[in-house]
Q: What sequence folds into this?
């Protein structure tokens, strides 16, 4: 089959690789019909996340048709399914608490040592990411093996187009959980750093959960315009001092809740960010948490901090004093996708959530390399690239 493989920093290739096979009775094989490039994939493309190996197949946002099943899978051939990016067994301690992204069994034992050393506990299993998360082949391919297929995938009703439901695989539940972690109360003002796909879904989700005002922060005009489309007020941090603007907009109190949807590759010419970039380029540091620092400092006393943005290593100049002295509550983590799928699928079906506005480009899978370059270098206008095997461009 054809698949997109990683070979180094900014080096991904379309290659012919062996077809996946059923390895476990709970497995299913999915023929991919739609797969997307995620902002998290750019962290791999930029080689920020360790333990990728040459030839690894990328992609953790995908859906398709069931073409083969193991004897213990609950799926049936011919069903259309969306597959969560988190691989979860459904029966361990954490899965029983619906903390699916903390599953004890999704990540094979041979891949758990480094995560145990870095984080105190091994990471959960994820598709198409690194060997820290299991080294599972991803879905930017023609076919993919789905472990624990009796737990993760959700069957899509006939008549719902791929474009409507594809983002159930990651970014829609991630934006939703980001807003949930912000513990939004009716009348709240919520500030969201980053108007990428997760940030924009967090804007929608925050309003659905009762936020009175949402303030979206970015520097790309088109992405800020998309946030405005859903009712957000906006701050362009290249034109305005973000902290001063937030204080002015909130009567010097600060937002009730803040959401960092940026993560470890913050942009902007700020002193702390410049130092972070120098440290990262000289292997003296890893993450660039400018957005997180700013969010913590801007949040009101007693407020809530939600962090869906991905961080992978260690940070310095973390404003622990502001966090403690203001009594902030912080919640974060990979998304418990399976927990949210039925509710969000119903909301899409009812027209309560707009999921298709985000797609800026639809490309054949064979043009995945060009899709990565575009998503990396044209972030203002390229908001989401969806790859479709066999698609013929008009």
A:
């Amino acid at each position: 089959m054809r698949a997109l493989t990683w070979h180094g920093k900014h080096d991904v290739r379309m290659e012919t690789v062996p077809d996946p096979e059923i390895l476990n009775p709970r497995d299913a094989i999915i023929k991919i019909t739609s797969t997307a490039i995620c902002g998290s994939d750019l962290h791999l493309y930029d080689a920020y996340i360790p333990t990728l190996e040459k030839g690894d197949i990328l992609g953790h946002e995908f859906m398709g048709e069931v073409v083969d099943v193991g004897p213990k899978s609950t799926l049936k051939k011919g069903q259309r399914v969306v597959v969560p990016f988190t691989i979860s067994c459904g029966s361990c301690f954490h899965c029983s608490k619906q903390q699916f992204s903390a599953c004890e069994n999704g990540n094979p034992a041979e891949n758990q040592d480094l995560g145990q050393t870095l984080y105190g506990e091994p990471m959960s299993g994820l598709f198409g990411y690194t060997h820290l998360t299991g080294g599972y082949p991803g879905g930017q391919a023609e076919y993919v093996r789905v472990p624990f297929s009796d737990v993760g995938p959700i069957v899509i009703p006939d008549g719902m187009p791929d474009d409507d439901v594809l983002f159930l695989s990651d970014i829609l539940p991630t934006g939703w959980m980001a807003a949930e972690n912000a513990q939004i109360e009716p009348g709240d003002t919520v500030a969201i750093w980053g108007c990428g796909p997760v940030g924009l879904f967090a804007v929608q989700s925050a309003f659905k959960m009762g936020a009175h005002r949402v303030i979206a922060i970015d520097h790309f005009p088109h992405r800020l315009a998309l946030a405005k489309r859903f009712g957000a007020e906006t701050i362009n941090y290249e034109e305005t001092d973000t902290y001063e603007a937030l204080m002015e907009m909130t009567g010097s109190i600060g937002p009730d809740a803040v959401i960092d949807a940026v993560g470890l590759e913050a942009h902007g010419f700020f002193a702390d960010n410049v130092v972070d970039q120098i440290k990262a380029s000289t292997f003296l540091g890893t993450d660039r948490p400018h957005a997180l620092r700013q969010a913590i400092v801007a949040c009101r006393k007693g407020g809530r901090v939600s962090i869906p943005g991905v961080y992978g290593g260690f940070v310095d100049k973390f404003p622990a004093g502001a966090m403690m002295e203001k009594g902030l509550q912080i919640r974060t983590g990979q998304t418990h996708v399976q927990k949210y799928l039925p509710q969000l699928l119903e909301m899409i079906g009812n027209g309560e959530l707009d999921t298709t506005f985000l797609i800026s480009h639809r490309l054949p899978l064979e043009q995945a390399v060009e899709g990565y370059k575009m998503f990396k270098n044209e972030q203002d206008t390229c908001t989401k690239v969806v790859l479709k095997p066999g698609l013929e461009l008009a």
In short: The CA atoms of residues 90 and 96 lie 7 Å apart. The domain at 175-332 is CATH 3.40.50.720 (Rossmann fold). The first strand starts at residue 2 and ends at 8.
